[in-house]
Amino acid sequence: MTGDLLEPDPLDHLRRRAEAVFARGYRLPYHPLVIAEAHGARIVARDGSEYLDFNAMAATVLTGYGHPAVRAAIVAAVESDFQQLTPLLPNEASVGLAERLVACAPVHPAKRVWYGCSSGDAIDCLVKIAPAAARRPRLVSYIGAHHGMTIGSGALSGDMTQRRFLGAPNIVKAPFPDPYRCPWGPCDRGECSLRCLDFLDEYVLSEQSPHEETAAIFIEPIQSNAGEIVPPANYLPALRALCDRHGIWLIADEVKTGLGRTGLMFAIQHAGITADAVVLGKGLGGGLPLAAIVGRDEILDVGVTTAQTLSGSPVACSAALATLSVIEGEALVERAAQLGRTLHDGLAELMNVHRLVGDVRGLGLMAGIELVTDRTTREPGRLEAIRVGRRCFDLGLLVKVGGRLGNVIGLTPPLTISEQDLAQALAILDGALADVASGRLDREG
Ligand SMILES: Cc1ncc(COP(=O)(O)O)c(C=O)c1O
Known about the structure:
By secondary structure, the chain is α/β, with parallel strands linked by helices. It has helices at 10-21, 56-59, 68-80, 92-104, 119-134, 151-156, 189-208, 235-246, 297-300, 314-329, 332-353, 382-395, 419-438; strands at 35-39, 42-45, 50-53, 112-116, 138-142, 171-174, 214-219, 249-253, 277-280, 291-295, 357-363, 366-374, 379-380, 397-398, 400-402, 408-411. Strand 1 (35-39) and strand 2 form a beta hairpin.
């Protein structure tokens, strides 16, 4: 992104204009800045301040801002294929991307691709077609999950933002294994997993959504909006086995975890399992609106029309092909694994030093820092998390503040992040945690 340094105080001006015209629910209160330029993992605001972006536009910037290969692919596609509608006319980019996704997705057997304009669309499509294809009416998802804002994906979600929307009567929620805050009280990791799985098997799938009536279970391999919660290692294999025993499809929402972020191309590969469908979105389109389902043909060939007019545009698919090439060519998956180790070592170090940090977790370049005011009672440090987020902002680091209890700092930098930038981000986090703990801050949350 490029831009001139504009008039003084453009932030307030633009913000006021946005507030006047954008719907309230459309504005997410993330970072109070207006971008002048962005390169790699760095943003320059219009007032000249510089930021390291460890939120990466809600984890959509995988290959860094303004990657020349992605940009060139977009420009070339705009010049040639701009207005072709993929559902009407197959074009090289959309067919080529589908072939590439089928070849790399951990889906057994991966046969078909469906494109949407947003990840919520793709989830929504599955919410509609999985029950029809399976001839089983019910679906299971998880408390704390976030799958999108459309009616179907919203109903499938189990997070706070969905509470005000109407649900769907055929969706039942199961507890997600959270080793730090196990729904059944303190336990070790393996125990948490088994308790949650037994409850799913013996209660949810027996009484609420009987096995033989359940078409699919939807899961985020890491629950991101809930606070980067990583299930214990034995959970996903056991869930896969449960699905196999009962002919239930397992659908992995890899919208945030997919395409290398966790140190493998797909997060479910850490568990050594395959899914019956995976959903991709966010960074897939290199910044353009694009989502994809890669799935078994018995799910996706359900026999009803599900195409959305502008979905799978050749421009977005060209950007996605370039994004995949950059991920492969620059070995970004391996890089996420390697730099992820540095990140997690650094976070463990922060936890040793700062009593505010109750837990650190994540995989690869996806991490959560859970703040508590008391390590014994694990009282959530919600206000402290807001203050740490603000302090990071003041010190030049963008992070996400969220989680089910509002007390988790989420980190999802671009996969191209440099070691120096990573070290700088850890140093800023260190300073911000120290400042908040000492009460030195002027600004109250
Ligand atoms: C895991 C996951 N799935 C689905 C979605 C929905 O994505 P979109 O807002 O692009 O529809 C999100 C958005 O945050 C997400 O984090």
